[in-house]
């Protein structure tokens, strides 16, 4: 494919955020070029792939305008429907609550989203890397050659190390930057509950984060951990923590003892919220590039797609001369900015507690399953906040 020399909008990155942005920009009549550095959209996969049901997202983010692909997608994208979420603290006294959703085949789902954008009129170029952004031009290199492309607006959906964000100064200050290192295995021959997401806590297995077992069908699961390096034992890698969890955890270990690893996935999860600004006069960032992650659980698909819809629509309006591109920042914050900030506050409160299994067990004792569900989705009930603050000060 040979691209045109100019477009209204160039979108960098064809994950859920970028493809959603490209779709809604194209639906508003903008000319759109969607670029992705991968050889195949959605491969390699980059997260465990749980997507809450649209009703769950809407209940907890009531101001959000959900894109269609959060509400409806092909059955072929679903690996396993989910009915329950189970939380296992260090003492293994589990609590659980009902949750509707699905573990997705991210390769198929991401291709579905990119296909929707293409059907709406966006042009798609895979295995194409952006090498430089200067002014309103984007330089690319890849299987289709080298090109210099002009754009009225550039949308950066290119992950936590976003080139678009760096080129425009849309990054979190280094002293405030927090990331979680994630490593996960897709495994077979495991004995898991097919209807339940399981999340495990404990400083000896997952310092500053949690481990998970997400079912992907009969005898299959995604098993992984997300840890904060600043809270880990010196010299112990994320992979070593994951192996320790698989082999030695008293609850998960027996379920995983015969696991056969079929795929290895690793990445970085930004967990400190969004930077002060996510848009300039001609560019904006979305998804992981904008810190659109619920810090309490690392969930990024719903906020990324909600912001992607806003990004695409705002960029199309900007290209048509109807608004400033900075309007994007105000719009997404109005829909879910408070939930994002609250999730960061909750994570920060939990940081001190997670250094002690005794404190974690105490916290999980007084937090009800219903409150856990709310916290997982970026909210912090008043009584829970007070209780956690008391624990973090060493008061029982």
From TrEMBL:
The segment(s) forming the Digeranylgeranylglycerophospholipid reductase catalytic domain are: 180-267
What EC identifiers does the entry list? 1.3.1.83
Per its UniProt record, what InterPro entries does this chain match?
Answer: FAD/NAD-bd_sf (IPR036188), Geranylgeranyl_Rdtase_fam (IPR011777), Geranylgeranyl_reductase (IPR050407), GGR_cat (IPR054715)
Q: Which is a GO BP term held by this UniProt record?
A: phospholipid biosynthetic process
Q: Which UniProt keywords apply?
A: FAD, Flavoprotein, Lipid biosynthesis, Lipid metabolism, Oxidoreductase, Phospholipid biosynthesis, Phospholipid metabolism
Highest taxon listed in the record's lineage = Archaea
GO molecular function list: oxidoreductase activity, acting on the CH-CH group of donors, NAD or NADP as acceptor
What SUPFAM superfamilies does the record tag this protein with?
FAD/NAD(P)-binding domain (SSF51905)
Q: Which PANTHER family match?
A: DIGERANYLGERANYLGLYCEROPHOSPHOLIPID REDUCTASE, GERANYLGERANYL DIPHOSPHATE REDUCTASE
Name of the protein in its database record: Geranylgeranyl diphosphate reductase
This chain's source organism reads Methanosarcina mazei WWM610
């Amino acid at each position: 494919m040979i691209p045109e020399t100019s477009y209204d909008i160039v979108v960098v990155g064809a994950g859920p955020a970028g493809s959603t942005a490209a779709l809604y920009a194209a639906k508003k009549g903008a000319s759109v070029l969607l670029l992705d550095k991968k050889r195949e959209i959605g491969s390699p996969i980059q997260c465990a792939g749980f997507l809450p049901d649209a009703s769950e997202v809407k209940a907890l983010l009531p101001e959000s305008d959900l894109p269609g692909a959060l509400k409806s997608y092909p059955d072929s994208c679903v690996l396993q429907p989910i009915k329950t979420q189970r939380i296992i603290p260090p003492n293994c006294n589990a609590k659980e609550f009902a949750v509707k959703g699905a573990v997705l085949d991210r390769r198929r789902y991401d291709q579905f989203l990119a296909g929707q954008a293409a059907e709406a009129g966006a042009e798609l170029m895979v295995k194409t890397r952006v090498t430089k952004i200067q002014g309103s031009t984007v330089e690319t290199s890849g299987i289709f050659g080298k090109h210099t492309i002009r754009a009225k607006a550039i949308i950066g959906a290119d992950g936590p190390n976003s080139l678009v964000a760096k080129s425009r100064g849309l990054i979190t200050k280094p002293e405030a930057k927090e990331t979680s290192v994630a490593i996960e295995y897709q495994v077979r021959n495991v004995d898991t509950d097919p209807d339940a997401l399981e999340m495990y806590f404990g400083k000896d297995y997952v310092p500053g984060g949690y481990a998970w077992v997400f079912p992907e069908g009969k005898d299959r699961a995604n098993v992984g951990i997300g840890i904060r390096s600043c809270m880990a034992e010196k010299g112990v890698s994320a992979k070593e923590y994951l192996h320790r969890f698989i082999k030695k955890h008293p609850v998960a270990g027996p379920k995983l003892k015969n696991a056969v690893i079929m795929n290895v996935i690793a990445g970085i999860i930004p967990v400190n919220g969004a930077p002060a600004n996510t848009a300039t006069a001609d560019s904006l960032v979305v998804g992981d590039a904008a810190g659109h992650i619920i810090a309490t659980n690392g969930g990024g698909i719903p906020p990324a797609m909600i912001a992607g819809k806003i990004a695409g629509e705002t960029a199309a309006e900007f290209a048509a001369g109807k608004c400033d591109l900075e309007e994007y920042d105000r719009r997404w914050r109005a829909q879910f900015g408070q939930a994002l900030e609250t999730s960061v506050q909750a994570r920060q409160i939990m940081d001190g507690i997670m250094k002690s299994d005794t404190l974690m067990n105490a916290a999980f004792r007084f937090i009800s399953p219903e409150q856990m569900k709310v916290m997982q989705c970026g909210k912090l009930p008043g009584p829970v906040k007070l209780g956690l603050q008391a624990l973090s000060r060493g008061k029982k």
